[in-house]
Amino acid sequence: MIKVQRRGGYRRAHAWNKARVQLGGILLFATALPTIILAMFYVHFMDAEASQMAALGTLVAGCASVYLVRNISLYPGIRGAFFVFPSVLVCFALTFSFFLFFRVDYSRALLIGGSIGTLIWLYIVQIMIERRSVLNVGIVPFGNVTMLVEEPMLELHWLSEPVRTRHYDVLVADFRADLTDEWEAFLADCALAGMPVLHVKQLHESLTGRVEIEHLSENSFGSLVPFIAYLRLRRGFDFIAAIAAAILLLPLFVVVAIAIKLDSPGPVLFRQVRIGYRGVPFHVAKFRTMVANRDEADERAGAMTRDNDKRVTRIGRFLRRTRIDELPQVLNILKGEMSWIGPRPEAEVLSRWYETELPFYRYRHIVPPGITGWAQVTQGHVADLDAVMSKLHYDFYYIKNFSPWLDALIIAKTVQTVVTGFGSR
Fold first, then answer.
1. Domains of the chain: total
2. Domain range for 58
3. Under 8 Å between Cβ of 202 and 224
4. 111-163 pLDDT per residue, tens
5. Which residue, of 95, 113, 129, is where some domain finishes?
6. Which of 78, 94, 129 is the last residue of a domain?
7. Are residues 325 and 295 both part of a single domain?
8. Could you tell me if 94 and 62 are in contact, meaning their C-beta atoms sit under 8 angstroms apart?
9. Rounded to the nearest 5°, which phi and psi values hold at 204?
10. pTM
11. Could you tell me the sign of the dihedral formed by the alpha carbons of 26, 30, 36, 39, in that order?
12. How far apart are the first and last CA of the chain?
């Protein structure tokens, strides 16, 4: 994952983005300052051991908040300030829970003061980092570098000779192009001087959240192997969360089932064969959102959902907009066929078609399919080939950057998607 700095106030923004600056602020403003203030005004009511535990808890939760925000804000199109509050809330809630579970004596006032200090400090940090939103980019004008022209976040400067006449936030070149010795020496000198020098596709991926595989010679498969250890660990979390969700959502399932039966004739659940992990077919379960019709003349067309599709029922539109129709797939998660997060599984008839038309399509099956995913929260529902190719690039980005941080970001964006109805059909 690439982290580049913004134009204007480069050194100042660079300083605010340093981990030691952010962690130092936690130590000073979230831990030391609340302790000093409470000691000055409530010295007679403070227990030394309880205050020490609260200060330690604040330091740990504050550092965890910094770590969480830093990792999530690396992804394209993400403003770190948006995730400050949920990150601080989660980290301090876990600290509160730890103290309560193990019955640790701590100062509630100090821990609350520390959480407020952490929140204020991280908002200040993100505001300072995000004051400028345009990158000052130097372009070596050889090869396929025109893909950056349409990016609104970039201010491009096309170099006419291998001489640096000004400071750039980042220098970009197509490393596959046949560069002369002078240009290669220039790139090396800029890198030695501390300027970020990136391959054009690296920067494009970080700005768009898409990974495009065009040629086997690029060795992209090697960089798209998912984090296997995390993949195995996540399976345990998926199973536990699925059990809890099945119990908590049971009343909702009953209400939805009754609504579907009252709205239109047909079964409550819709079952369809889809392609899952490592290309293995499985039966997916969803709440039925369309009129029951098993006599589709064109099986491929029947598997696609178009804009304003007339087959969608009244209750079905609501279920699709809120993504409630996907919830029965908790059964697929319990069976190990799906995960909460991953590329959406396509209908078998569509998947086989896409495999014949789109290069490397089947490679998306290297991770388990999910109820929600990076393509869903970024692009929405698609069906035609051009849009599916774009969706495939989002899936490859997810696989390449497979991590708990990207999953946390997808969860947050899924909540936003459910609220706004983005991408539903």
1. 3
2. 10-129
3. no
4. 999 999 999 999 999 988 877 657 789 999 999 888 888 887 788 999 999 98
5. 129
6. 129
7. yes
8. no
9. -65, -40
10. 0.76
11. negative
12. 32
